[in-house]
Design goal:
alpha+beta, 10 strands, 6-stranded mixed sheet, two-stranded antiparallel ribbon
Length: 344
Amino acid sequence: MENKGSFIVNVLFWLFITTLCTLAILYSKTPLSGYHLLVTFGYYGVINVSIFYINYTLLIPQLIKIRKQYWMYILSITILIALMCVVKTAIATLNSDIILTYTNEATNKKVYESVPSYIVKAIFMSGFFVVISCLLKFAVDWFANERVNRHLETEKKDMELQFLKSQLNPHFLFNSLNNIYSLAYQKSDKTADAVLKLSEIMRYMIYESNDGWVSLNKEIEYLQSYIELQKLRFKDGAAVEFTLNGEIDGQKIVPLILISFVENAFKHGVANDPADPIKINIIANKKILHFSITNKKHNHNKDEMGGVGLSNVERRLQLLYPGRYKLNIVNSTTHYTSELMLDI
């Protein structure tokens, strides 16, 4: 990709130079012979291209990029320009009628340019191609480095997300198996239903949530299945108020982004008090998702926060919804409330 970008930039630059030379030939007031064109654009073209690519492919990569020898680079460029100016001056002297002679438009007489004056012009033109080659080389390298850095950032982000997701699934599975173990230990008739519900949830987590985005409707169904699984733990069912408002129609969301809030409420909150149930509210439209959950805290657990789950989901939000979410957590003495707004 880097070589392709460098090739395209070089082709565009030389097309521009060629166009300027062609226009100069077409609009020249003096007819130019074939030999005149050979000397002016052929010989000098080869010299200027050589200056450009000696600096572009050899001096900058070796002396600046690799060795960091800036004084050696300056010395090398000075020697390069001096040598090329000697060659240009030699060509000009041997072809003085073409290079060192021009017609004064006012008097219509030939004027001969001095060699020192020509040398100054030759140094300036050689320096021009050195400067241009430096600018193009550094620009190409900068964009290539930016592309590499973006790729590395993307890889780092993907690896971190995979790590976070790998943390989330075992965390959820560990808690769910504990719940089913509790039911089995009590020889509850709900054990089979709990295993079936867990299998449905795991199917979603393993297969459907592997995509970067899932439908909001699927994610909500997953939350409801999880709540039903949790209710099986309690003899009289868990006390949960689940309300869903707005329009659920094709919106997409990152999978497993809401589950940690619900899991945290069941793990650290009071889930069997009908007078003070866990309250889950979801409001959605085409652009905004508003999710909130409130749970009563256990008396012995008033200062405990959400552990792995909530720190995990907050980091995922930072990576996947940068600047597109608001998370507000209120940890009072009696209740724990999480409120999330997402741009979807």
